[in-house]
Write a structure and sequence with these properties.
Layout (H helix, E strand, L loop, with lengths): L2 H10 L3 H15 L2 H13 L6 H9 L4 H20 L6 H13 L8 H8 L4 H14 L11 H8 L4 H14 L2 H15 L4 H17 L20 H17 L1 H7 L3 H13 L7 E2 L2 E2 L1 H15 L3 H17 L5 H16 L4 H14 L5 H14 L4 H5 L2 H6 L6 H14 L5 H14 L2 H18 L3 H15 L7 H11 L4 H14 L4 H20 L12 H13 L5 H13 L7 H10 L6 H15 L5 H4 L10 E3 L2 E6 L2 E6 L14 H9 L23 H4 L38 H4 L4 E6 L2 E9 L6 E10 L5 E9 L5 E4 L15 E8 L8 E9 L2 E9 L9
Antiparallel strand pairs: 1-2, 3-4, 4-5, 6-7, 7-8, 8-11, 9-12, 10-11, 12-13
Length: 865
């Protein structure tokens, strides 16, 4: 009885499946079939993604970065959803929008595979966006790019030239070495086709293939035979680019293509002499882009080749004289022409013409053209010194330019133009520039004046006056070694002591803010104070000064807030020295005793020691405080003085108040080992055997034994040299000009070191008094984005030579080739042996200390013969 109600309930429930079937049938009877398919397709296509133009317009309405970021994230989410649903209809549109977001800097890597799907499509519009996306989103670091190799190969053989062009562009843009090896044969076939559209693209693609896989270069050699015969300028342009790349990468190719120089000259002549062509005309000049490319190729082909240079001299002269300079297009062609003339073995008249073109550039109103002209003249001044000298006044006028880059280049070029004939006039202009220039120029300008005055000073008085003028004008900006160098110069100029101390005393009364000037003045007053008080100056009218007035000035320096601790040390030492030159000994004792309790430890130590001299060792005081003897000339480089004697190197500390310490000759070779770093060179020195002083450093060739000694006879042992400094080290202090004119020497420059962005170039001169002395000027430049600080250049030569290093212009090599550090090396080569040198470079770059050794064995024969 209990089961009946349940049975009734169970029986009364309708079956769900038949019910659903009946409802579907009823719905099918009410809605036609075509309406159902329309609704289904409508559901799949909604919502349609916005177009690229709408997206750009929407993003540009964003007022803040956060609002723009929100719009991008929302659209990226919609694009990701579309990609997951495999929506083929709007894939092209979505990838295009993704590429726009990538251009704005937002991540778009999730669209890489979609680009490959578009490339595989048969529609040209899809392929175009797909290949564009591949070029932007893919590179050889991602393995995904290998998946498109087969698609590119198929498209390279496509029947439509535009599809083939897309494939060539993509391969030439991002093809890896593996892709280039697989597809180089297809590119070579297209390079031989008669279709100009494909040939120019294939030529550029071949350039990329050669860069990635240089060994495939010979594959394209047969195809290059007829490229220059093409009339289409696009094919000619890309062909010249391909030939340039091949010549730069292979010396064999360079020799092979030198036979094409007459053909290139003929093409360039036709471009110059042809009439107006609207298809290729740019500002009245026929196809300047092709002209520039041909000039660059001629520059490569004519370098170090007499026949090729002779063949192109006439056409270069025509280009230089017939090109219109009123438009920037003509200036670009003239600039390339100048570079070509300077690089090939051109005639002297042609080189003068090129430098005159650069001189006209200096008068141009465009700052970029003036900067380019100054940079080019700076590169050529070593080889064509006299020609550049003709434009000296124009170059000096550029020192007054408002643009800082132009002023810096003009300053560097002005120093390069200084010689013994124009030293007075150039120094006058440069000192005027030093007075008015910005603080950022003062350090480099002061260093340049010091070096130029040391090399070309016409007299010692002029040298001293010039250095004092620099110290008075920019004393706070000079290098640290300027003070000891000037002290040494004054000490060695015995006849100028009275004049110098009087000038420095006057300068001290006018200004005590320039600390280097105050230090030199204090030292000189302490040494030659008796000459100041006695009024024995013959060079100018003497001044009347009492002992108390001199002591008042020095005491004022001790208490001045402007004085640094180093300056106070100089002043206290000067006062102490005057105790043997003045009669006011009691006053000096009182001053010295006061500073025996100074909070400055250095000053306190000096005062305590000086007090001890007054009390316990008063009998020794006159001998200890007598005048300094003449100082021997040493070559400074960084924080140490490196004394060069007969090829041996001896670092020693710099101390201007004491004569150079005498070291044992037996340690000099070991000191050189320390200089050059003892990791890769081992000296053969018998430490258990007594060493004769006369042969000190005789094992230097063993130390430098891994230098290349082949290719010439064994060096003849040098005659014994006294242990004192060789006479030629003091030549810089002579009253006559030290060097010949650079152009008279005719010695080509060379690159001694080029690594990690640091480039060291050597230029050569000959010394006037002794033709056996080669004067090498190093030019250090830095092409990286960060400056190189604490730069130190050191050098060593075999024992048959004598070497001297002068002070560098700076210890900071500016970034991006914005400046040059120069340093002078003098090498005495009495036996005319082939010059060999080992150099050591030390600097700090991006916070890291860098140290490197290098050997220089390829000096030009003119530098040592």
């Amino acid at each position: 009885m209990m089961s009946k109600p349940d049975d009734r309930r169970t029986a009364s429930r309708p079956d769900p499946e038949p019910l659903a079937a009946r409802r579907s049938e009823a719905r099918a009877q009410l809605i036609p079939d075509d309406s159902i398919s329309f609704l289904a397709s409508l559901r799949l296509r909604m919502p349609a993604p916005i177009r690229l133009r709408e997206l750009i317009r929407t993003i540009r309405t964003a007022r803040t970065q956060a609002e723009e970021r929100e719009m991008i994230q929302k659209e990226c989410a919609a694009i990701r959803s579309s990609f997951r649903e495999e929506d083929n209809t709007y894939r092209c549109r979505n990838v295009a929008k993704l590429l726009y977001m990538h251009m704005l800097g937002y991540p778009a890597h999730f669209g890489q595979l979609e680009c490959l799907k578009l490339i595989a499509s048969q529609k040209f519009t899809d392929k175009r966006i797909g290949y564009l996306g591949a070029m932007l989103l893919l590179d050889e670091r991602q393995d995904v790019h290998l998946l498109m190799t087969n698609c590119i190969k198929n498209d390279l053989n496509h029947s439509t030239q535009y599809v083939q062009g897309l494939a060539l562009c993509t391969l030439g843009c991002m093809g890896s070495s593996e892709m280039c090896r697989d597809l180089a044969g297809e590119v070579e076939k297209l390079l031989k086709t008669s279709n100009s559209y494909l040939r120019k693209k294939a030529a550029l693609c071949a350039v990329h293939v050669i860069r990635k896989v240089p060994e495939l270069m010979e594959m394209f050699l047969p195809a290059t035979k007829n490229l220059l015969s093409e009339k289409n300028h696009g094919v000619l342009h890309t062909s010249v680019v391909l030939l340039t790349e091949m010549c730069e990468r292979s010396p064999d190719m360079l020799t092979h293509f030198r036979k094409l120089v007459p053909q290139l000259v003929r093409i360039l002549k036709n471009l110059i002499m042809s009439g107006y062509s609207p298809e290729h005309d740019v500002s009245g000049i026929s196809d300047p882009f092709l002209q520039v490319r041909i000039l660059r190729l001629l520059r490569i082909l004519g370098k170090n080749d007499d026949d090729s240079s002779e063949a192109m001299n006439d056409i270069l002269a025509q280009v230089a004289t017939n090109t219109e300079t009123s438009k920037n297009v003509g200036n670009a062609i003239l600039y390339e022409t100048v570079l070509t003339i300077m690089d090939i073995k051109s005639e002297s008249g042609l080189r003068v013409l090129a430098i005159n073109i650069l001189g006209r550039f200096l008068l141009n109103n465009d700052k970029n053209i003036r900067y380019v002209a100054l940079t080019s003249l700076l590169k050529t001044v070593q080889t064509d010194h006299n020609a550049v000298q003709r434009h000296r006044s124009t170059i000096v006028d550029c020192l007054k330019d408002l643009d800082v880059s132009i002023k810096r280049r003009a300053m560097e070029l002005s120093f390069a133009l200084v010689n013994g004939n124009n030293i007075r006039g150039m120094m006058k202009e440069l000192l005027y520039f030093l007075d008015s220039c910005d603080p950022e120029f003062k350090a480099d300008c002061a260093s340049g004046v010091f070096l130029a005055a040391e090399k070309y000073a016409p007299s010692k008085r002029w040298h001293i006056d010039t250095i004092m003028r620099v110290l008075t004008t920019a004393g706070s900006y000079v290098r640290d070694d300027s003070v000891p160098n000037l002290i040494q110069l004054i000490t060695n100029s015995v006849e100028m002591h009275a004049y110098t101390v009087q000038r420095l005393y006057k300068a001290l009364l006018d200004d005590i803010s320039q600390q280097p000037l105050v230090q030199v003045a204090s030292w000189c007053i302490g040494e030659y104070g008796d000459l100041l008080v006695s009024g024995q100056c013959e060079e100018e009218e003497p001044i009347q000064v009492t002992e108390d007035e001199v002591l008042d000035v020095l005491e004022g320096l001790l208490v001045s807030n402007l004085s640094t601790p180093v300056t106070r040390g100089y002043s206290l030492t000067a006062i102490m020295k005057l105790s043997t030159r003045f009669s006011s000994v009691n006053r000096i004792k009182k001053v010295v005793s006061i500073y025996g309790s100074s909070i400055d430890v250095e000053l306190q130590q000096r005062a305590v020691e000086y007090n001890a001299l007054f009390k316990k060792y008063d009998h020794m005081r006159p001998a200890l405080l007598e005048r300094m003897p003449i100082m021997e000339k040493t070559a400074s480089n960084g924080p140490t003085e490196i004394v060069q004697t007969n090829g041996e190197t001896e670092p020693s500390a710099v101390e201007p108040k004491h004569p150079p310490p005498v070291t044992q000759p037996t340690n000099q070779a070991n000191d050189l080992l320390d200089l050059l770093g003892g990791n890769d060179v081992v000296p053969v020195i018998q430490t258990t055997m007594p060493t004769k002083p006369a042969s000190a450093g005789g094992e230097l060739l063993d130390l430098l034994g891994d230098l290349s000694l082949t290719g010439g006879p064994a060096p003849v042992p040098a005659p014994s040299v006294p242990t004192s400094q060789p006479p030629f080290l003091l030549d810089g202090l002579s009253s006559q000009p030290l060097f010949n004119d650079i152009a008279a020497a005719g010695i080509p420059s060379m690159t001694a070191y080029n690594k990690n962005g640091l480039k060291i170039d050597f230029t050569f001169e000959r010394a006037n008094p002794n033709p056996n002395i080669a004067v090498i000027t190093i030019h250090a430049t830095n092409s990286t984005e960060a400056e190189m600080t604490d730069f130190v250049f050191q050098a060593a030569v075999p024992k048959t030579f004598q070497l001297q290093l002068l002070s560098p212009s700076s210890n900071v090599v500016p970034a991006l080739n914005q400046g040059t550090v120069t340093q002078v090396i003098r090498v005495l080569n009495q036996q005319k042996q082939q010059l060999r040198m080992r150099i050591k470079l030390t600097y700090t770059h991006k916070g890291s200390a860098v140290q490197d050794l290098a050997e220089v064995n390829n000096f030009p024969p003119q530098s040592w013969q």
